[in-house]
């Protein structure tokens, strides 16, 4: 595996493959890799000839009171994991390379409020601007044909897909289903923050989505009541619920006439967990449950 930190090094490595018409894939990450990340790389390997994995903890998607400084960084371990699955190139740029004039003076992408002021965007209003900004920069540096993202962050991948389409960025975005622990907990680097004794309780977030999905499948279309009940139970379990909502699977809207998805985020023992449960090809009555 080639490990590079400079844009010129990366372009030199990729130029040969471009000339040969190879399909180049990108897997953007913030490091602290787990099996979910490795699944993204494996999907990219199946779709592409050359795969670039990036590790960059992006400061513009963290608010001043968030966990940028303590976000887990395990570069040597990450390299070993990527080597073990045959990754081609690891690009690990510095903050100065990504934001040469400083992160606060870098051009931003303006995203539609209908995508960014809901769900995670309500409590993290800075987050998706930072995601769009760094993705655009990485897309321009790597120039991939395909980029692979995990569906655990479904709001994020939905916004990236819209941005790529609206700005005519010629990249195919591929989503990969969430990889879970045996108890159903979605794999996340932030799970490392949780005490071992809380990991079992954390899986209740997924179990509550399963319970809600089961109720919907058996004909319960009172989404507001379902979401309210879920919030009450999660609160009783010890979670601080940010939201538990049912929205359109594809555009995050409150149009629930076709494909829908359960979205949730909650704090447990100081750690913020997010998850979602898609219910595609399911005819529903209109309505939207709000867990805020």
UniProtKB/TrEMBL annotation:
SUPFAM superfamilies: Nucleotidylyl transferase. GO terms for molecular function: ATP binding; pantoate-beta-alanine ligase activity. It comes from the Eukaryota. It catalyses: (R)-pantoate + beta-alanine + ATP = (R)-pantothenate + AMP + diphosphate + H(+). Its EC number is 6.3.2.1. One of its GO terms (cellular component) is cytosol. One of its GO terms (biological process) is pantothenate biosynthetic process. Keywords: ATP-binding, Ligase, Nucleotide-binding, Pantothenate biosynthesis. It is an enzyme of class 6 (ligase). Pathway: Cofactor biosynthesis; (R)-pantothenate biosynthesis; (R)-pantothenate from (R)-pantoate and beta-alanine: step 1/1. Belongs to the pantothenate synthetase family. NCBIfam families: panC. This is Pantoate--beta-alanine ligase. It comes from Tetranychus urticae. The lineage of its organism: Eukaryota, Metazoa, Ecdysozoa, Arthropoda, Chelicerata. The gene is 107360915.
């Amino acid at each position: 595996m080639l490990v590079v930190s400079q844009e010129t090094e990366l372009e030199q490595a990729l130029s040969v493959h471009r000339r040969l018409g190879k399909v180049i894939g990108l897997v953007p990450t913030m490091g602290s890799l787990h099996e979910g990340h490795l699944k993204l790389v494996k999907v990219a390997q199946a779709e592409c000839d050359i795969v670039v994995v990036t590790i960059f903890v992006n400061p513009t998607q963290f608010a001043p009171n968030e966990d940028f400084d303590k976000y887990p960084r395990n570069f040597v371990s990450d390299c070993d994991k990527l080597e073990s699955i045959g990754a081609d190139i690891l690009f690990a740029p510095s903050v100065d390379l990504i934001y040469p004039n400083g992160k606060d003076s870098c051009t931003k992408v303006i995203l539609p409020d209908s995508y960014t002021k809901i769900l995670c965007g309500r409590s993290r209003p800075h987050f998706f601007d930072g995601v769009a900004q760094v993705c655009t920069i990485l897309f321009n540096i790597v120039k991939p044909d395909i980029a692979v993202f995990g569906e655990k962050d479904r709001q994020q991948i939905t916004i990236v897909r819209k941005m790529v389409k609206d700005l005519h960025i010629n990249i195919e975005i591929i989503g990969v289903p969430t990889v879970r622990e045996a108890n159903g907990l979605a794999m996340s680097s932030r799970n490392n923050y949780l005490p071992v004794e809380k990991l079992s309780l954390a899986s209740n977030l997924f179990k509550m989505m399963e319970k809600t999905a089961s109720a919907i499948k058996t004909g319960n279309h009172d989404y507001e009541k379902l979401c309210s009940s879920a919030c009450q139970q999660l609160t009783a379990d010890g979670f601080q619920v940010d939201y538990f909502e049912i929205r359109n699977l594809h555009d995050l809207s409150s149009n629930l006439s076709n494909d829908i998805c359960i979205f949730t985020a909650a704090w447990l023992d100081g750690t913020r967990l997010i998850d979602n449960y898609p219910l595609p090809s399911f005819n529903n009555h209109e309505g939207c449950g709000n867990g805020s």
